[in-house]
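This part of the workshop introduces the protein records we will be handling. An example says more than a description, so a record of this kind follows.
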Amino acid sequence: MRTTGQLGVFAVVLLWAGPMPAQTGTSDKADASAGPDAKEWEFSLILDGYAVPHRQFYVSPTFTADRGWLHLETRYNYENQKTGSVWFGYNFRAGRTLELRVTPMVAGVFGRTAGIAPGCLLSLTYKRLAFSSASEYVFDMKNPSSNFFYSWPQLTYSPRDWIRFGLVAQRTKAYQTSLDVQRGVFAGFSVKKLSFTTYVFNAGWTDPTVVIEAGYSF
């Protein structure tokens, strides 16, 4: 089956990434990275594997590059399947004990969905508790009636630096279920610069969607 084959390819990617050093932080999706005082480039690669009930398994990669205030990002299968986006943003950071990170940004979207998308990454962290959000509004130039608001809010608790769990929600156009807003739980861990997270959406409401995420920062 094609789905089994794609799962195999995704597993190979994870095994290949395994010996490399993981991303740290409380939120792989919405960590508004680096502060404006950073002098070196920081990169991250995140692979999300989506197992949606009664649909074909697919992978959504996201690559980011940050240096000081500058944030660059590329995504695929994110705004929609067979759709890519290229982002430019500005990093802000404030506070220490209560730390706020915000990255307003804008993107060009191309592929099955084509247009422009203003968006924002936000995180608010206090000790071992963090709230984060990745959101955007896609203006579809091919079909204005398909304009869409995407959001991924997440509440994270990290009892140790290497482990985290919490609550998550998602509103997306990349796949559909009987629920307009996906909601769920997650758990993850980090080893050096490599991180793994498993998200389970909609369990108890309908057939659950499972997202397996691997992240690497360097």
